[in-house]
Design the sequence.
């Protein structure tokens, strides 16, 4: 069912190619506006879904997919523009690949789908990744003049939170698959 939250999420997905064209054309102010609107609609669609009880199965898959598509495409493009460090881009991509492959392997092993719930670190990783992209765009658009040290600190925090979130999801998967195996000892035993 297409409700307001899902429509906002679809708008976010449609905005991705627009954002990428603006970014690669070095139209940083416009790219910043599109990214800012995407970040705002991400917060708004979730709030509307919760407050109006419009949560849907489609939305539960579409919303994180939209986030991943937007952030991954932004990081890849910004890395090729030498605007974000390659190590951070590799970390962001690797975490998402490990999570997707991990959930797939868990399904293959157990023939059951693990419920995907965002963790606090997962939400923090998304927040800091979006903040990093916005900060770089604001710097390029000359909206703010961030010292390179502050960008570096932001990148390190983003990388740390992203790595911890990835490890947390891996741990959750191990605990879940251990609980699915009858007679299996708990993780760490």
Sequence:
């Amino acid at each position: 069912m297409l409700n307001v939250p899902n429509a906002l999420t679809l708008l976010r997905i449609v905005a991705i190619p627009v954002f990428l064209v603006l970014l690669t054309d070095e139209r940083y102010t416009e790219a910043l506006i599109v990214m800012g609107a995407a970040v705002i609609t991400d917060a708004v669609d979730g709030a509307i879904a919760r407050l109006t009880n419009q949560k849907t199965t489609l939305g539960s898959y579409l919303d994180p997919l939209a986030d991943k598509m937007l952030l991954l495409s932004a990081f890849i493009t910004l890395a090729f523009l030498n605007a974000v460090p390659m190590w951070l881009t590799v970390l962001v991509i690797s975490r998402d690949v490990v999570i997707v492959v991990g959930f797939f392997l868990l399904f293959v092993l157990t023939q059951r789908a693990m419920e995907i719930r965002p963790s606090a670190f997962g939400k923090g990783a998304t927040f800091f990744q979006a903040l990093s992209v916005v900060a770089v765009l604001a710097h390029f658009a000359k909206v703010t003049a961030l010292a390179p040290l502050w960008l570096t600190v932001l990148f390190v925090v983003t990388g740390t939170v992203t790595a911890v979130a990835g490890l947390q999801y891996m741990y959750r998967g191990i605990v879940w698959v251990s609980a699915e195996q009858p007679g299996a000892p708990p993780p760490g035993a």
In short: The CA atoms of residues 20 and 156 lie 24 Å apart. The chain has a mean pLDDT of 88.
